[in-house]
Design goal:
Length: about 525
């Protein structure tokens, strides 16, 4: 039993002994010495320490191996190479073989096939391949340089965690953040906290987190914003496929500050090609724009913002509203199949037989456009073909005006005057003091000049001499009370509630006015 117990203890002890490194060393010169009041071995010239079974090799110009304690000091061209081929270099090294951790000081370099890391001082566990740097660190990989004041080096996990004043610079971006973990083999960066990314004249911001692949310039940010000149794109998730293509998802907001306009939706895509930049927004998108100190709402199936740059005319931006367009302002509403807003001319084009309601008038035509005059706080409405205006009086008679073309001038939501050109025709119902119908005026002429006061007809001038007739109520027929192609679209008349849906939050009008 005694021999069996001794044999068992020997078997148990063998693995424990195997886990400890045995040190073999050699040098051009080897002598006994005394340093810091301690006995040691002094090695000089081509100093080499070999540690088994770990396979680690330490080389230096000079070293001291202390006899009474597990301690090695190395100086000059210090290098540690492990069995995987990773290298650590420094001017000075202090190594504790029993604890298997070391302090590298002065021009520290950690080199591997996936990059080179530099610092002035590194406390490093050679078994776990983990270290800490407190006096600044720098990683160089391909065209990328990554720096910070402090951090953790993990050679085994192939990653470095940078903290405090982190800066990543490559051929595309300059990234500044609070903390960043970089995987040297995957070549991917994960950043956290307040982050700013700059490229050309663009800035990307987030207060949360994201990731970046320098090799493909692929960038993802959560709750991020993209600032370009006077335009800001925000979303729950921003993905830069490269610096010319972006995808935004969740609570998307595109804010064009120069135009005092904001588009919100659920998804946006951005692409840049030659001299044209395109942003498409979908997911119940809504545009809000301040027009003459009042907020205008525009709803469509999707919006397409196109920015064009030319050396002759400078920058020009168009916003296309596509499919089921609805427009609402307190004194102006409309529907159309499509609409285009041009920033340079400050004009809104309504396409494919649109309908506009203003000051109680329903206005239709083949196509029309609104010219916004911000300084005079006026709007001009142009109808290019097949004008038809209708307004209902208090007893549901319909006053009507027809013509080929029209220009109407609005101020403070009221019509000041109208110019109608070509085939002018008008029906106007005359009411008594108690709104009883007295009769109807029917006028035909080529051109009409109409003046309004408080949205009520004040004066009408017709050229050349008009052809007209007054029909007393007793002689009126239903056929006479409507002009050819009359239509009343009250069921399509949009309200603010039908446009600003609770599923997509619209910016507050006062907030937009402040931005302006």
């Amino acid at each position: 039993m005694y021999y069996f117990a001794c044999f068992l203890l020997l078997v148990i002890a063998i693995p424990l002994v195997a886990q400890e490194d045995k040190v073999a060393y050699k040098a051009d010169r080897l002598e006994n010495a005394r340093l810091h009041n301690k006995s040691c071995k002094k090695l000089e010239g081509n100093v080499t320490f070999t540690f088994q079974p770990s396979g680690m090799v330490l080389t230096a110009d000079k070293a001291y191996k202390y006899d009474a304690e597990e301690l090695i000091e190395a100086h000059g061209n210090v290098k540690i190479v492990d069995k995987e081929g990773s290298q650590l270099q420094a001017d000075v090294l202090t190594y504790y073989p029993e604890k298997k951790w070391t302090i590298l000081d002065g021009n520290v370099i950690c080199a591997s096939s996936s990059g080179t890391f530099y610092t002035t001082k590194l406390t490093y566990d050679v078994e776990r391949k983990e270290g800490k740097f407190l006096d600044g660190g720098k990683l160089v990989q391909d065209q990328m340089v990554l720096t910070s004041r402090t951090g953790l080096y993990d050679g085994g996990g192939h990653k470095i965690t940078f903290s405090k004043e982190v800066v990543l610079v490559d051929a595309t971006y300059a990234l500044h953040c609070d903390q960043l973990t970089y995987h040297t083999e995957k070549k991917e960066a994960y950043f956290q906290g307040a982050t700013k990314i700059i490229y050309e004249d663009n800035t990307l911001l987030t207060e949360q987190e994201g990731s970046y692949l320098p090799s493909t310039h692929h960038l993802v940010m959560h709750n991020g914003s993209w600032h370009h000149q006077d335009t800001v794109l925000k979303a729950d998730r921003l993905e830069m496929v490269d610096k010319t293509n972006c995808v935004a998802e969740g609570n998307v907001s595109l804010d064009a500050k120069a135009q005092a306009a904001v588009i919100v939706g659920e998804r946006a895509t951005y692409s840049e090609k030659e001299k044209e930049k395109r942003t498409e927004i979908t997911g119940q998108p809504l545009l809000t724009k301040v027009v003459n100190n009042e907020t205008m709402y525009l709803r469509a199936d999707r919006f397409l913002s196109v920015e064009k740059n030319s050396t002759e005319n400078g920058s020009e931006q168009e916003v296309h509203a596509l499919g089921q367009v609805k427009l609402y302002q307190e004194n102006l509403q409309g529907v159309a199949d499509g609409a285009v807003y041009n920033s340079k001319s400050n004009t809104i084009y309504l396409q494919n037989k649109p309908i506009v309601w203003c000051a109680g008038y329903q206005i239709t035509g083949e196509d029309m456009y609104l010219v916004i005059e911000e300084e005079q706080e006026k709007i001009q409405l142009f109808v290019n073909k097949d004008l038809f205006m209708v307004s209902a009086d208090p007893v549901d008679n319909y006053n009507q005006i027809k013509g080929q073309k029209m220009v109407a001038y609005f101020k403070a939501g009221a019509i000041e005057r109208m110019s109608i050109d070509g085939n002018g025709e008008s029906l106007y119902f005359v009411l008594g003091e108690k709104n009883e119908l007295i009769g109807m005026n029917h006028i035909k002429c080529h051109n009409m000049e109409i003046s309004m006061k408080d949205n009520t007809l004040e004066e009408m001038k017709c050229t050349p001499q008009p052809i007209g007739a007054f029909y007393p109520v007793a002689l009126l027929t239903k056929e006479q009370m409507k002009l050819t192609n009359f239509a009343w679209y009250a069921d399509q008349w949009p309200t603010k509630e039908t446009i600003v849906k609770p599923t997509v939050k619209a910016p507050d009008s006062q907030e937009i006015a402040v931005k302006k």
